[in-house]
Amino acid sequence: MHAQEIDKHTWLITRGEGQASIHTYLLEGKDKAAIIDTGLEPEELREFTERYTDKPLIVLHTHGHIDHIGNDQQFDEVMLHPADFALYRLHSSGTYRKNFFQAQYESIKQYDPLEAKRYAEVHNYTLNQDVHLIPLVDGMTIDLGNRYVKVIENPGHTQGCVSFFEEARSFIFTGDMVCELGVLMHFPEATSMKTYKASLHKIRSSMTDTFKLFAGHQSTPLGIDWVDQYIVCAEDLINLGKSMIKDDPSVQRDNQVSIYVKDSATISYASRQLSLAFDEGKKQ
What we know:
Radius of gyration: 19 Å
Number of helices: 7
Largest sheet: 5 strands, mixed
Order of helices and strands: EEEEHEEHHHEEEEEEHEHEEH
Shape: globular
Structural class: alpha/beta
Number of strands: 15
Strand content: 25-35%
């Protein structure tokens, strides 16, 4: 875990490298500091952030996946979109975490025994299930004291994905909605491609050419052109879905995972997500 200064009151905290990198952001205001996402494995995150700020800490989550909530047990309450509350409870459970880290261990033990040993050591690590979840909703403003962060709902990678928008600094923190090496949209908790594309347009409309987009993984910051490329990629997949479903309506029930690449954008998806009715079906 190491920190890089983005500006005088903002830090990028990173673990790992390349595709495996996981990012946390620390934002300091006059009265409070915010941590955006807390990582995957147990570490002294709170103690680490106190090297950079002495302000009271609040935790903001871009979404509820296991690699973004891993140190929440160090805090009494965290903020998350309600659509991801159930996902959060699942991914913070002992059973889920044990199975996840066991799978990581098995997948790399033959070619990276040292890294595998680290995963083996956290098999039985369970998050605090008593963490109080405070809802984040679209348009909410988080006041850190002379520093304001606006919440933007943008479902896609999960149903409860949000971005954190800082107009004064031209920053936007988007979690896993736009990443250098690909966006994972094949999960059961992901939305349809139609909804994902609409969320990308919402992110895009909040940005100008000077904005920096801070992602949850890999290279960061990214420019506005990355959002444009993912919009085109999603649009291609929507058109592909229309063609596939016209020829064979059964693909709407297909869970096979595929990968689509367009320029620098890469999206993994299940065929069922190309159906325009996918989200409506999930709500029933």
